[in-house]
């Protein structure tokens, strides 16, 4: 009716797309070997929508009338499917709970505004009615930023930005596009592409996340080494706040005091609802190429990425997987094509003869964009660095495959949940000097945590973004657990990883935001004074806590997620 | 006693350095022609320190005892010279008032802490005593950020960070240095240079401004196109806030909610006293070169800078002066060397033959750094762009001179004040599409304002920093006025320029900060909602307004500077 499409209520992505193991002959043996899990069993069915117990909407007639007046009846929705879809994001915690039918508190109504003005009226109506407002973009968040507080007794209004999906204007001279916040990645790239532009922002969630969501959570994309994180990309903003609209005009740079732009970035709905942004766009490059490399060790790969970053090359992607993720990549290849072409007995013999430990091979991708000459020069610089660190170019085949398949990764979590394993991701950023020790500490902490809960599991990592001063390490981890206690055990591992990030000089998250999932570590990351600053900011703008309360600032015990049972003292 | 050196109490820089016209034969005729001012007259003497009426210190015995206990007697100073030095920054408004002996409210005491811990104790003591605390770095601010509010009845404590001037540590692996906030530009570059590093941050005020001041006001340097503005350079921070210390660990990037780092940047002392920062440092480049170019018009020069920015070159400096500033540059050259070598009858004949209007020549500098090959390639790309826009390379001579003399520019204001003219600067940033119209509007507005106050004057401009989406335009303007009303007339011009920035899509300041000088335009720049956000932030952290009150947030009538008489309605 509203025309807005959503992901599956019970999992990632759209119907008809799912992860399969049958076309990946190495995967089942790999998982059996590493985790002791047989993934060849048919998946369990999750509940049907009809099986769910959905608490009745608490929306008052008065607020319904007000909202209906603002957006029209067709755009005020409280049917079961919509309410379930809007009740959570897509973290593995969210997926597990929804699949179990543990919905918790569910939004009482979903409104679909069609303009900034309507959003402003909705914000004001919610504050007037002392209702809770939770903005909703693509619903892809994995940090609990969409969580409805269990203890919340007020009415919950989910504001879905899905109808605000247009590129409003492009300043061709300045390379700036004004885009509505609800535009999904593919939608806005399609609209920009028609006029020869690209935003160049490609997070894993690209297909199902929105511009507004990226800004509200400080997203990064796969080509952010070149195009910048969303914080740099976003030059102007419009946000509906209680009683007034924030309008930040597009500026290349400014020295107007504490940066309001940088306060809206990462605000996760706590200051208002972002309705549009003016962002930097770029002309499509003549050449775009991703080269793959092998390194004899992760340490060598990390050093090479650092040297590339401080070289005179200017790459678009700098990525290297540890040996664990490389082995997983090898195991998920289809019968032909991609990396599997490389993992031939012949190549392996060559590497062995060179003295490589084949279990330590690390796969790397480096991206290049620009004119032919520019790309050739960058590749020349990179080639030399790779070889200084004992690496080896293995062509563009794997990179092409990576490029095509990069947005399908999140589907694997549903596949694993169907077969008794919970998998998710945690990422951090740290100075180059702290990166390898942090990595070693995280692997050890995760393995200790798995031993503590007496479950098998797996953890793997890649470096995903490079900066002058450091890089992002992106960990994926899984725990084999089919029991009702899976979330509690998962939390033991997740907590160990997050705490190790902090203890090793990293941040709690590089680009997934805070939500309620990471808020327990905020005080350790930013110091108590940093949390005081953020707390005062939120309290000043939103004194009654109507705007997505409970996110970013942790309200429970330090170091303990509010989302699962507390561990024994 | 404290060992901390300051600038002249009545002007810019140190004793023994001053601007002279005698060695610049073209200057006096130029000024006479353009402004009708005879600068060959001997300069007026300003007041002597002994002539000033300095209000007695209002420091209570109790607060003095507390401060003495914290920093020791030698570091609690209230002699006349120190109090006058700390009473203002170095805007032309500050210079005029100090030279007249119009000191206004003067700090009651200056304390020179020797450690972060001492700063923290000072902050707490000031809040406890309900005193006003104004942090002081190099004292170079020209936005009124050091202004002591006239109506302030509480005790005023100026906290001079001058003793905190050490590079504390360098992380050679990550390229990060932890430096105390009171380190002046030359001091920290010397300490870094000894270990082969540079910060690469070179604002005009470099010799007399500090790291903490740069951060507190969102400074940019001449090579920020390559090294980034101070906001990007600053990765970690330590700040003494009321009752607690903010510690932001150095991180390459993070998604921990609204950026506290970006709230401290530009906070101008209103959230606390910055005591140290961890900043990105770089290895000294093999080659460093500044090439000079002539363009037939400012419009052509602007387009060329834009094309360089969006090219595959990666320059360190992109600067082009309008024809007014170019003429001024020609006029300030010494008898031999620099641009004067170029401004020969021979070259001018060549340009004339090419059809150039010699009054429209625009001088441009483009900087290159890196390996020989890298610099050669960048120069090749730039060369092509320059020639596409009708420009002409005129070698490295002028650039070398510019490079040596760039930090001497502020001295000229004292020279002019001595001879009956008030000069200062206003800078903005705007999208590329708005740059030329903004420029035209500002020139027109300034000339109209000069006509309105019936005084001759001059305004000139250069583009100083380039970004993907736009650039900084940096205006210098002067008004010939020897009367007691010079400030009121100066304000008419300054207001016209600032309002035109806003009306033409620019920001009120690109890198000079807000203070009290620019605060009247904050609401127009950031919208009222943006000011609400900043106001709530300040009020939350500093409810009694002990921390540098009155800065950033304007408290008077909109559009009117609080610093001079209000215009008639």
Helix count of chain A? 19
Q: For the largest interface in this structure, which chains are involved and how many residues does each contribute?
A: A-B, 90 and 90 residues
Please identify the top-level CATH class of the domain at 420-541 in chain A.
Alpha Beta
Can you give the mean pLDDT of chain A? Answer: 93
Quaternary arrangement of the chains shown?
A: homodimer
Tertiary shape of chain A? globular
Output the radius of gyration of chain A: 23 Å
Number of strands of chain A: 18
CATH fold-level label of the domain at 420-541 in chain A: GMP Synthetase, Chain A, domain 3
Beta fraction of chain A: 15-25%
Assign the structural class of chain A, choosing from mainly alpha, mainly beta, alpha/beta, alpha+beta, or little secondary structure: alpha+beta
What is the CA-CA span between the terminal residues of chain A?
50 Å
Low-confidence runs of at least 5 consecutive residues of chain A? 557-569
Helical coverage of chain A, percent range = 25-40%
Strand order of the biggest β-sheet of chain A = 15-12-14-13-17-18-16
CATH-level-2 architecture of the domain at 420-541 in chain A: 2-Layer Sandwich
